[in-house]
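Notebook, student rotation project (T.W.).
Task set for the rotation: take a protein with a known small-molecule partner, predict the structure of the complex, and write up what can be learned from the model alone. Partner molecule chosen: S-adenosylmethionine. Sequence and SMILES entered below by T.W., checked by me.
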Amino acid sequence: MDASELTTLLTPEALRLLRDLPPYENETDVLALVSRLRKDGHAPGLVATVLTQARLRKRAGAKFGPFANDMLFTQAGLEQATRLEVAAQHAGRFARAGCRHVADLGCGLGADSLALASLGLKVMAVERDEVTAALAAFNLSAFPDVTVTHGDATEADLTCVDGVFLDPARRTPGHNNTKRQMNADDWSPSLTFAVEAARSVSAGGIKLGPGTDRELIPDDAEAQWIAVGDDVVEMGLWFGSAKREDIARSALILSSSGHHELVAPADAPDAPVGELARFVYEPNGAVIRAHLIGDLARRLGGHMIDASIAYITSETASPTPFARGYEVLETTTVDAKTISRALASHDMGRVEIKKRGIDIDPAEFRKKLTLTGSSDGVVILTRAGTRRVALIARRIENLS
Ligand SMILES: C[S@@+](CC[C@H](N)C(=O)[O-])C[C@H]1O[C@@H](n2cnc3c(N)ncnc32)[C@H](O)[C@@H]1O
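Predicted structure of the complex:
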């Protein structure tokens, strides 16, 4: 969105029109809507701007739920925004640390500030991009204790705050949004600045991508990987009183059954490697990223199938929110005909194909299978020792 679209959007006429639009459903409805709004005398630029917002609000529902209907977005801002349930975790850290006034340096559209303000904290939000800052001011306007400043985070005066949160931009503005910048000093603000700022106050937090190089984790930080269901969404670094005592690594899973967390004072020691057993567990990505897989294996009374493959195996079925569990019914060679025969003998026709530690494209491999059964099954293509194996399995209940 450029400055002139912003000017169009922030007019009473555009905001009224946006409020009164029917719920955005699909592109066909939109065509009819455009002609109706044009017939009613609204200018083409205004109609386009308002419908873009309606489209973004619908998409934003996945991150913000019903709050999306009272917010304004840019596409890039929405893609980078923290989803509200995760922002609530960030805000909770500052509240538990006893903070009263938190700076959100590079606030984007304001999702994290929104969560902080919802917990009654004062917020000083700073955003360098002018359009984004204006939209953040709109999104946060219901909170009297929030200020939004259009400016550079690296020049913010932090003397009045006791907490600092940073979510550095890790994409190149104006370029393909999926292309991440790789160098931590190219992030904006840079990681060096972010760590210094987070350490300069009583409680500091930095949100980074889940795949961030572990070498970049400072020794004095708690690193927490958060997954929403199976989707690992971030690694957070927590400093000062936002860091929990004796915890340096944690994996937090937010799922429909609640919040589940594994914590440890350091990377967990690896679990031993052993024979493939009756049950196989595929740990949640947050557990893998946090290097807590050894702890999970010990909890499950299991061991690894291979030192380099993130599957745990055990003789017992232990439902857990930290992994998906499978009962192995049969082990075969990695051969499509043999696997098809085995699946047929278990009446499995709807199969999920998983692979780890083996160079096979599951989508291509599926085309080679003949599926005749009527029940659900799972084929796990992996290695056991030096052998390539296919595990014919079924899911066991987990808690997520
Ligand atoms: C990943 S987004 C933040 C998203 C935000 N946490 C949310 O959930 O809505 C990073 C933001 O930092 C802003 N930014 C980058 N460098 C900045 C700087 N030096 N000062 C202020 N803002 C900056 C970018 O414009 C971008 O909007």
